[in-house]
Amino acid sequence: MADENISVVPVVTARDLRRFARFNVQLYRNHPYAVPDLIKDTVHSFLPSRNAALEFCDAQTFLAVMDGKVVGRVAAIINHKANDVWKVRTVRFGWIDFIDDIRVSGALLDAVAAWGKERGMDRLEGPFGFTDFDPEGMLTDGFDRIGTMATIYNYPYYPQHMERLGLVKSAGWVEWMVRFSSTVPPRIERMSGIVLERYHLHVASLQKSKKQEARTYAYKLFWLVNEAFAPLYGYSAFSDRQIRNFVDRYLFMLDKRLAVIVLDSNDNVVAASLTMTSLAQAFQKAQGRLFPIGWWYMLKALKWKRSNVVESLFIAVKPEYQNRGLTAVLLKELGINASGAGYTMAESNPELEDNMRIQNHWEYYEGSEIIKRRAVFYKSIIL
Questions:
Q1: Disulfide: which of 85, 275, 293, 354 matches 258 by Cβ 3.0-4.6 Å?
Q2: Which residues contact 66 (CB under 8 A, 6 or more apart)?
Q3: Cα–Cα nearest to 281, from 258, 311, 249
Q4: Structural domain boundaries of the chain?
Q5: How much is the average pLDDT of 123-143?
Q6: 313 or 21, higher pLDDT
């Protein structure tokens, strides 16, 4: 895919890292469905002082330049923890964006493959981030739906390029739009009551300040996620420092009414769901910047002019309680709390397309539907 008019260069300077971060915003400027990254967040993702994942990941960002203009970007990542767990030698590609030119996308992936091979990797796969809390999975269907803060939006030509470049789908996700009302679906109501009584469980009452609740539950929730998500494709466990980073970064955005925590008789966390109000339109208005006025759009969306849509961040159940109906407890409480707060719809986080334990529950909500699909792609890079 080499072309004398296109050069792919490693990002070395702080200035070039900012160019890397800005490219997504520029490529999708004023797009009706794309939700731009925050430039500052993208920059921080590649600074060891800001991103605890760089304690167990290696990373290199690249820019594709043609005629002096940036026309693409990509990050090459080796997650050593995930590779050890999954017994693979994978170099991930993430934060990938490019103009509709197969020479550009090909040159970007060639750069990632070469960087990975130099470090002993034998396969290329993505788009992945450092961990599962980074955006992952290329959009393959649902291009006419607004994106979310936590997922990737991309033009329809992206997956077409992957296919033309010889990459093959390795995993797929679906996203649901679920309609809430003040009435809990009868089956969810019945299952919830049975489960709570049978296993002597109760729902935590979140009455304290968010800082106090964070101290009480933050680490327990992420440890639960580590346990529950361990078998999921490509997952690597969060470290204590990563958890601190997430709490510092997202705590101010969360609404306690949208957090559901289920405890056993000894007050141990056995299941939880975390959801937040949609900030998609606020991010669009901010155009990648909190200053000078981007922060105002965020604050307004959080405090005074909320969307009627919430975005699910995760649903997690302790392994020994899985397949026992606890998801019904989480959904019942979330539906009651969300509808009481004025929300009418929820967009699920990306769920593995074969994870029917979760997806079967959405069908109890009238009018719910799959609205997006996404995938990761892989290719051998052995000569």
A1: 275
A2: 5, 6, 7, 101, 104
A3: 311
A4: 6-174, 178-372
A5: 94
A6: 21
Which CATH class name applies to 6-174?
alpha beta
**CA-closest candidate to residue 159, choices 98, 233, 216:** 98
d(CA 293, CA 299): 10
Stretch among 8-17, 136-145, 306-315 having the lowest mean pLDDT: 306-315
* Residue at 177: amino acid letter: M
Rounded-to-integer distance, Cα 6 and Cα 69, Å: 10
| CATH ID of 178-372, from 3.10.20.310, 3.40.50.1110, 3.20.20.70, 3.40.630.30 | 3.40.630.30
Banded pLDDT at 292 (limits 50, 70, 90): confident
- Do 178-372 and 6-174 fall under one CATH topology? yes
